[in-house]
Design a protein that fits this description.
With about 210 residues, the chain is mainly α. Helix content is about 70%, strand content about 0%. The chain is built from 9 helices and no strands. The radius of gyration is 20 Å and the shape is elongated.
């Protein structure tokens, strides 16, 4: 048997990611993948077991690469009260500067209801981001920068929902408000409208 090229696995992953970016998930066939990777069809089951497993790993790898800078920011030595707001801006900017990866990210989101591997891996990824965001939101609340009624976990989930919404909106309505305008509006709400005097226990109370 011919020796296995150790680089084939990575080439298959890269080819899958590129194919999804260029053609979309439905058009990313096994032949399309191996053609781009310079491999043969047998390489997919050899390295991944199946084409579905390869696609799952490629989708998750793309999402992790896209979100990677946010992990670095949230793990930095910047003040906790700065990190959450900086993360909102960075998340939006990432999807702007890495526009080519957005189709793969959207494909990963779309695959989650029917692909347990993608669903499980993205859940781990987003729980980690949400947990770090929640910790920084809690620090802002404890420092008096946010009202006492702000729930850090729910606010972190809202931030992530906003980011995903901006990504979808940019794909569906590219002529609509840009991500920077949306992030600016949200940050204004987060840091101004949500902030209140000491003793404020809930929105609308004064």
């Amino acid at each position: 048997m011919a020796p296995v090229d150790p680089g084939t696995r990575e080439r298959l992953l890269l080819a899958t990611r590129q194919s999804i970016r260029d053609l979309g998930l439905p058009a990313t066939t096994a032949r399309q993948i191996v053609g781009r990777a310079g491999a043969n069809l047998a390489a997919i089951p050899y390295h991944f077991g199946s084409k579905d497993a390869l696609v799952t790993e490629a989708l998750v790898a793309e999402a992790r690469e896209l979100i990677g800078p946010v992990f670095e920011l949230l793990g930095s030595d910047r003040a906790p009260t700065e990190r959450a707001t900086a993360a909102v801006v960075l998340l939006n900017e990432l999807f702007e500067t890495n526009r080519g990866q957005v189709p793969v990210y959207l494909a990963a989101l779309a695959a989650t209801p029917h692909t347990p591997g993608v669903s499980d891996e993205l859940a781990v990824l987003w729980r980690e981001v949400r947990g770090r965001l929640a910790a920084d939101v809690a620090a802002q609340r404890d420092a008096g920068l946010l009202a006492a009624w702000v729930d850090p976990e729910a606010m972190a989930a809202l931030i992530l929902a906003l980011v995903n919404g901006v990504v979808v909106a940019a794909a569906v309505d590219p002529e609509g408000p840009g991500h920077r305008a949306v992030a600016s509006q949200f940050l204004a709400l987060l840091l101004s409208a949500f902030a209140g005097p000491p003793g404020r226990d809930g929105p609308g109370e004064g």
